[in-house]
Each structure stands twice: as structure tokens, then as C-alpha cells.
């Protein structure tokens, strides 16, 4: 996964880049279909803000975090991304259970027969 880190109104240090890359490296392993991560680190009004956008195969997710500490903002944004990815994958697996059409039709026929027997 390509990770693009940019800074706005702050000096972008190697430590900040390493922190972002280490946090996102876990996602790289867990979600191999992710292709690119765009990260914008900014400072304004006494707060540190992190914006992360993930791009992948049929998936685009973004997360924002704003705290008094840049490293905490990075961790919070990555946690939000992780929750969003888990939720997206749960709904995907729930909607695509891998059932064959014949199994679905058979189950539907059984439900119809049960409803008829009740009347």
C-alpha cells in the first residue's frame, strides 16, 4: 500500500511519518485490498488534526481526528478507520454469504409451505 503523508501549517518530521506508517502497516496486513493511503497532518487553533483517506478495490474510506497531541490524533484516526473497515467488511460478508441460488430457492419454498400450513 502506498502511503502519502503531507503536512499543513507544521513541520513534517521523520518521526511523524514513521508513526503514520507504523499505524497503517497493521491495516496493510489485515486488509490486503487497500492500495493507497493519503494522510494530511495539520495544526491550527492549538489543535492537531489528522485526515486519512484509504483507497482500495471498491472501497474508499476517510477518517478525521483532532486533539491536543499529534500522535494521539494519528492513533484516533487510525482506530476510526479500522472500525469503519470492520463494519464495511461485516456488511459485505453478511450480504454475500456464499449461498447457492438453489439453497435460497429451497429455503424460500420451505418458508412458503410453513406459512400455508399455519393457515
TrEMBL record:
The keyword DNA-binding belongs to this UniProt entry's keyword annotation: no
What domain of life does the native source organism fall in? Answer: Bacteria
SUPFAM superfamilies assigned to the protein according to its UniProt record, in alphabetical order: Ribosome binding protein Y (YfiA homologue)
Supply the Pfam families for this chain. Answer: Ribosomal_S30AE (PF02482)
Is the Ribonucleoprotein keyword given for this protein? no
Q: Which UniProt keywords apply?
A: Translation regulation
InterPro entries, per database record = HPF/YfiA_ribosome-assoc (IPR050574), RHF-like (IPR036567), RHF/RaiA (IPR003489)
> Oligomeric state and partners?
Associates exclusively with 100S ribosomes, which are dimers of 70S ribosomes.
| UniProt name for this protein | Ribosome hibernation promoting factor
Q: Which organism is it from?
A: Lentisphaera profundi
Q: What is the gene name?
A: raiA
